[in-house]
Design a protein that fits this description.
The chain is α+β, with helices and mostly antiparallel strands. Helix content is 42%, strand content 15%.
Length: 81
């Protein structure tokens, strides 16, 4: 597996709203996206367990990212996860 801190990967940006209602951008590398997808298929919505595999990420960040990706791809027939 590649280094998750590799800056050569282009991060994916998703816009979510934080607790105050302000928009915030979540940026994930391709490696992180791939790992989140694989872990979700294995363990489901156990965000803390998934976050434990990705240094520097909280369970809340992972859940927000997954929710935003899932809701945006649910209108599409192709799901990349």
């Amino acid at each position: 597996m590649g280094d998750l801190q590799d800056t050569s990967q282009h991060p994916s940006k998703d816009i979510t709203k934080d607790a105050t209602g302000k928009e915030s951008k979540l940026e994930f590398t391709e490696d992180e996206e791939s790992l989140i997808g694989r872990m979700f298929r294995l363990v489901g919505q156990r965000w803390g367990l998934i976050a434990g595999r990705i240094p520097g990420r909280s369970a809340e960040e992972i859940e927000k990212y997954w929710t935003s990706k899932s809701s945006s791809s649910s209108s599409s027939k192709h799901n990349s996860f």
